[in-house]
């Protein structure tokens, strides 16, 4: 029986939008691709969150005409442990790329991707919420909150959401940490350099952005509550004490927003349904790998579906997708989980903290190890 669409994507965040544009670019008829999201485009564009893109993600966006987007480049990443010996410094010049990554606003990226999708002619339906799905042998029925029921040969779940609002998946870990998000200005910014500083409670990241830094400060819930209640000068004093003076004095901070942190993963794949991005794996923000892993998901899935859709072997493509993505997904999940759980949350003086210091020193000294780390962060396991 004919279906309304060949491929329906639930979730028009960066990963869902990128998948739609990649499918159209690889020859799937745009009118047969449906993109469904519960928010208006204006609401998504107004989202002020900061995201980190790897150099590999830039290459994906270039394929679909979604680059350039307003950004600040990351040419160096300084990784250290507060108050301890050992650090690693990654420079883009060491790896033959112009930048290691980029810092941009979520809304700006969505706006650029939405333009690429519109130009391609993909069917976009919003604001609509999927309230139920039912998979049969040859199609998936998708019930929407406006009473409409659509049929599709393939359903891609790309609506992941935030850790604190998700149902528990088979691989689940609450790190007992909260990320405090803000934008800070300093007296001595270092052009193009990002910082990842491990503390006893969790990592503290400063990402160069808009003549200051995007701050991601991971702490325990009690500490987070205290920091959220601080006046601005008190908050800046606590930040200064924790980070030190590598960027001079912290002079101002924007509004603060707290987000609970955890690992929530389940690589869903059935005959006609598959999950990608945060819908498949929600990660701790340490090393900034979540969105980049999702864009790699979208790239591989688009290649396989575009090749196998016409021959009606799309279900086989989903099985191959899961097999092909297993190594990259698994390694990235294990890496971020270890950094968040074993190192960032361990007490001063513990064995894992000593291992971290030694490890950072070895990574900095051994070029192949540094290249492996940089390659994983930029391009994933391939």
Task: Quickly describe the structure.
By secondary structure, the chain is an alpha+beta fold. It is 37% helix and 29% strand.
What's the architecture of one domain in CATH terms? 3-Layer(bba) Sandwich
What order do the helices and strands follow? EHEHEHEEEEHEEEEEEEEHHEEEEHHHH
| Major β-sheet profile | 9 strands, mixed
Oligomer: single chain
Please mark out the parts with pLDDT under 50 across 5 or more consecutive residues, or reply none: none
Shape: globular
Instruction: Spell out the CATH superfamily of one domain.
Output: FAD/NAD(P)-binding domain
Query: How many helix segments?
Result: 10
Any overview of this molecule?
The protein is of the alpha+beta class and 382 residues long. It has a domain at 5-72 and 99-167 and 262-347: FAD/NAD(P)-binding domain, CATH 3.50.50. Helices cover 37% and strands 29% of the residues. It contains 10 helices and 19 strands. It has helices at residues 14-25, 41-45, 55-63, 106-120, 221-229, 232-243, 290-308, 314-344, 351-365, 367-379, and strands at residues 5-10, 33-36, 50-54, 72-74, 76-81, 87-91, 101-105, 123-125, 130-135, 140-144, 149-157, 171-186, 193-198, 203-209, 212-219, 250-253, 257-265, 273-275, 281-282. A hairpin with a 4-residue loop joins strand 13 (193-198) and strand 14 (203-209). The longest helix is centred in the last third of the chain and has 31 residues, at 314-344. The protein is globular and about 65 Å long.
């Amino acid at each position: 029986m004919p279906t309304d669409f060949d491929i329906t994507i639930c979730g028009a965040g960066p990963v869902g939008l990128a998948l739609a544009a990649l499918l159209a670019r690889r020859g799937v008829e745009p009118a047969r691709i449906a993109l469904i999201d519960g928010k208006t485009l204006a609401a998504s564009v107004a989202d002020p969150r900061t995201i980190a893109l790897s150099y590999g993600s830039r290459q994906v966006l270039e394929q679909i005409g979604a680059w350039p987007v307003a950004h600040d480049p990351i040419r160096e990443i300084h990784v250290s442990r507060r108050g301890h010996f050992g650090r690693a410094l990654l420079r883009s010049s060491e790896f033959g790329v112009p930048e290691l990554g980029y810092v941009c606003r979520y809304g700006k990226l969505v706006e650029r991707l939405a333009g690429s999708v519109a130009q391609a002619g993909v069917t976009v339906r919003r604001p609509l919420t999927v309230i139920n799905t039912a998979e049969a042998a040859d199609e998936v029925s998708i019930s929407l909150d406006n009473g409409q029921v659509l049929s599709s040969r393939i359903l891609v779940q790309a609506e992941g959401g935030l850790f604190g609002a998700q149902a528990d998946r088979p691989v689940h870990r609450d790190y007992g940490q909260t990320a405090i998000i803000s934008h800070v200005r300093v007296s001595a910014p270092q052009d193009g350099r990002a910082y990842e500083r491990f503390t006893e409670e969790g990592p503290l990241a400063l990402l160069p952005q808009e003549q200051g830094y995007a701050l991601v400060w991971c702490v325990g819930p009690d500490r987070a509550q205290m920091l959220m209640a601080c006046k601005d000068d008190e908050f800046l004093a606590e930040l200064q004490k924790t980070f030190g003076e590598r960027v001079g004095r912290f002079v101002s901070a924007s509004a603060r927003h707290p987000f609970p942190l955890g690992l929530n993963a389940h690589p869903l794949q059935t005959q006609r349904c598959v999950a990608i991005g945060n819908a498949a794996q929600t990660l701790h923000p340490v090393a900034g790998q979540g969105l980049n892993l999702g864009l790699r998901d979208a790239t591989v899935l688009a290649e396989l579906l575009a090749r196998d859709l016409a021959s009606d072997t799309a279900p086989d493509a989903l099985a191959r997708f899961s097999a092909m993505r297993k190594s990259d997904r698994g390694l990235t999940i294990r890496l971020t989980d270890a950094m968040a759980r074993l190192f960032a949350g361990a007490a001063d003086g513990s064995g894992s903290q000593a291992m971290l210091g030694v490890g950072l020193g070895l990574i900095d000294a051994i070029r192949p190890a540094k290249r492996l780390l940089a390659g994983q962060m930029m391009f994933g396991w391939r």
